[in-house]
Design a protein that fits this description.
alpha+beta, 133 residues, Fusion Protein Consisting Of Minor Coat Protein, Glycine Rich Linker, Tola, And A His Tag, Chain: A, Domain 2, four-stranded mixed beta sheet, 4 helices
Length: 133
């Protein structure tokens, strides 16, 4: 759900950040994935997760009219099941965002993050969804 929608439902990002450990951190001791190899596996899983989401959106006739910038914060159970996928977009019409949200929730029913960890973890980043072809 969008970050404003999460706030309306009483979901506080700061609280989630206290429950889910950072997948990556500038201080490796504070990260879930500490070694270079673990970090690369996490980056690969995240990249593939977003690529698969993009393919799912395309197959469901969702089109990006232009490159669309946003931000994701994804919270996972240790097995990679997504508990929360929070997002925000710089510019996206409300009807388009509603359709993105609907399809995102369908996608999350059948897709895990692609990597597991011994604890709950979170990954965030800016993202740019490319213009659909």
């Amino acid at each position: 759900m969008s970050i404003p929608a999460a706030k309306e439902k009483g979901i506080i990002v700061e609280h989630l950040d206290s429950v889910y450990k950072s997948a990556l951190h500038s201080e490796p001791a504070k990260a879930v994935f500490k070694t270079d190899a673990e970090q690369q596996k996490l980056i690969d899983a995240y990249t593939n997760f977003l690529i698969d989401l993009g393919e799912f959106l395309r197959k469901n006739n969702f089109k990006w009219e232009e490159p669309t910038r946003g931000w994701n914060r994804i919270y996972m159970k240790p097995d990679g099941t997504v508990d929360y996928f929070l997002y925000s977009f710089k510019t996206l019409p409300p009807a388009k965002e509603a359709e993105f949200n609907r399809l995102l929730n369908l996608y999350l029913k059948d897709h895990k993050f692609g990597i597991s960890a011994p604890v709950k973890f979170a990954q965030c980043s800016p993202v740019t969804y490319p213009k659909s072809e």
